[in-house]
Amino acid sequence: MYHFIIIGSGVGGSTLFKELNRKYPNKRILLLEMGDNRMKYNIIKGEIHVLYITSLGGSGLGAVGNAIRIDLRKVGIKDSEIYEEIERELNVREVPDNYINEGSRLLFDYGFKRTPKFIDFEKCTSCGMCARKPCPFKWTPLRFLRTSNPYSKILFNFYVFSLNKKGGIFTVEGYHLLTGKRMVFQGEKVIVCGGGINSPRILSSILDNEHLGKNLFVDTFITVGGILKNCNLDRSIPMALYKIYSGFLLSPHYSVLLYRSIKREKKDVNTKDIYGIMVKIRDEGKGYVKGDRVYKGVTKRDEKLLSKGIKKASDILQAMGVEKVYKTILRGSHPGGTCAMGKVVDKNFKTEIEDLYVCDASVFPESPGLPPILGIIAMGKKLGSIL
């Protein structure tokens, strides 16, 4: 019997694991994770290609270190001091001058700011691979999973297929993905932290809520760019600068997909000559997760925001010297909204079932339109203080 069972080891789950181990050093805490210690990207193809990672550490492993504050009032957090605490803990600082790509310096003329990052710039090699391989010089959820608590346990490669509650005790049932062994765990409290795609899937076995799995947003983005000789964006800190507009964000971003798109036309183009700007919009929560089906389309409002962002980015690129502007497919990498606060969980992250909670991007009632990691850590800390 466990006091707490946490399902999912991403930003929300790892924060709760750390906070609860610190608060209750003598209680039994179990963390269950579907992935293993390899960084595995999942791509759900459709009108928008939705990306997320299943791994110990979740999608936080592929984050590029962005530590931008988001408005948390709609999830019941108003105190800015929680952000100050997190920024100290993650050693957040703005990208130093010597890490700003030469081509990107032109963006200062357009009002771009240095991005705050949870990266150790004393050791960072500026390899440009933040999103594609694990990095020891960047904070990831793995750091929150370290504990000396002998009562705690982490089990990965474990697939949860049902949740039940009887007589005040939860039963979490699943199987080990490598051995196929069926396993059952019991706990007093369960916190689901599977993310915007998997949390509603897990909860569907125990919750009968009409809103569960609906309201999916993904922070839809597209990268536009072209050839800018010797700009070396591929060997630079991703998204080192940013600017927030009404409904969208622009940030310099090297994209392999953009490179491939250009290379089909310009066979001799080199990666060091590709310059891109990401357009990330605050998309509408009009998608859904229902079992194995995931759908997220582009609404008319989304189309307008994308058009505005692409036009703004294209104008900047052409002013920088890019003659022809190319663009990638639409993607989304921050799925959320599917267990929305006020519909599936209350202001304390609790579902309609006593002692069953959700704490990840799925509880956002709408897209923040900005990198959500600091906000999810803040929610994990709040729930940790409640439990």
UniProtKB/TrEMBL annotation:
<keyword id="KW-0560">Oxidoreductase</keyword>
<protein>
    <recommendedName>
        <fullName>4Fe-4S ferredoxin-type domain-containing protein</fullName>
    </recommendedName>
</protein>
<feature type="domain" description="4Fe-4S ferredoxin-type">
    <location>
        <begin position="115"/>
        <end position="145"/>
    </location>
</feature>
<keyword id="KW-0285">Flavoprotein</keyword>
<dbReference type="InterPro" id="IPR007867">
    <property type="entry name" value="GMC_OxRtase_C"/>
</dbReference>
<dbReference type="InterPro" id="IPR036188">
    <property type="entry name" value="FAD/NAD-bd_sf"/>
</dbReference>
<keyword id="KW-0274">FAD</keyword>
<comment type="similarity">
    <text>Belongs to the GMC oxidoreductase family.</text>
</comment>
<dbReference type="Pfam" id="PF05199">
    <property type="entry name" value="GMC_oxred_C"/>
</dbReference>
<dbReference type="GO" id="GO:0016614">
    <property type="term" value="F:oxidoreductase activity, acting on CH-OH group of donors"/>
</dbReference>
<dbReference type="InterPro" id="IPR017896">
    <property type="entry name" value="4Fe4S_Fe-S-bd"/>
</dbReference>
